[in-house]
Amino acid sequence: MTEKEIWTDEDFDVMGWHDCRLYSISLPNENFEFKIDIDYIFRWERRDDLFLGFWISECDLIFHDISDLQVAIEPENTIPTTISDITRKNMRPTPSGGLFVWDYRIELDKGAICFSAAGFTQKLRSQPKFPQSQDLNNR
Question: Listing from the earlier edge strand, what are the strands of the sheet with 34-47?
């Protein structure tokens, strides 16, 4: 299986992050970028009722022009942490009118991360692999 190496907010409607493992978050930098390190599940393989495995890649998910970051994660038993869903709503122009921003919510099995951002880029660090588990568990 080969996937394109860069995905953006234009792909949001065809993407899904359910059960993707989150390894780390990097707080916003001087460029107002917020990065999370995940294993992205591209496909769940099944044959009839038989589950076979997952096509998974290591990815950097980077949100651009971030503001209003709120992180609420339960401190106990955070390993592993998985994403339940990523949603966005309330698209609006910035005060300068130069960008549009969305309100994003990353729902985790152990909390949530909320913020506003102009968009995202998801970059593959490797082409998908086919482990039997739902993550690569290699970091």
Answer: 6-8, 119-124, 50-64, 34-47, 20-26, 81-93, 100-108, 111-117, 67-73
pLDDT in the model for residue 74: 87
Contact 18, 43 (CB under 8 A): no
- What does the pLDDT look like over 76-119, one tens digit per residue? 776 789 999 999 999 999 878 888 999 999 999 999 999 999 99
Tell me the average pLDDT of the chain. Answer: 92
Mind giving me the DSSP string for 92-134? EE-TTSS-EEEEEEEEETTEEEEEEESEEEEEESS--B--SSS
Q: According to the model, what pLDDT value does residue 115 have?
A: 98
Q: Which residues of 95-117 are buried (b: 16+ CB within 10 A; e: fewer)?
A: eeeeeebbebebebebeebebbb
